[in-house]
């Protein structure tokens, strides 16, 4: 079983003061407001997070948990946006669009990766925030680690020049396209509408308005040998595009319980030929506009052998 597309380990950040981020509401149509008290929201989010970690570990996934006790980083539970890891020992650190999201970067995470995994280099693009450039990691890009394609929706979260630079450094081909939701609004992150597994890809083709580009994206996914599971906009609204394939005791597809409910039987059958579905119940965390994939920063690095002293 290849783990190139499906990492066996992830980084997760445990939020102690979770809330929906006011700085990202303008372009994240998935965010919702709650009438509950701040303390109640934070407590529920913490419980959902801990249950998700326990479920992943029970399924055989290695989970590195970092606590965030600060109150200035409401989206810290979504670490996949500020760094990514790549086979061969490569790590990227990204510039973020929202000012308070720039505070999510933690060098103790990078130091853990260097200590526990074989890291050859860390390329830090975050200084480009000073030029108002953003490339929000594996939110802005959905990466085909096997076919080396970076599928990227045009948005203020994915600067085209920076995308080209990333693709040159990390040996990906950029595949850029426009995507709009049912109301005609620009989609802000690519991982809202698509996720790529080893043998299948989930994508809402209807959200790509240009027919020729839609056909090209479909062709490239099919060329990679994957079954293309075409999602509806209604399924995207249930976070079914926001999934991540992992390797535990067997290959898994991590998704939210809400997303799992939105799966049609024939779609589920295609996935289950390749991976076991692992639903995680995170309704409070989803009010921030992200879901399971956003919570998981996959580790595509080789672990170091631990030597006893």
From TrEMBL:
What superkingdom heads the lineage?
Bacteria
**Annotated protein name in UniProt:** Arginine deiminase-related protein
Q: Per the UniProt entry, what species is this protein from, by scientific name?
A: Tritonibacter scottomollicae
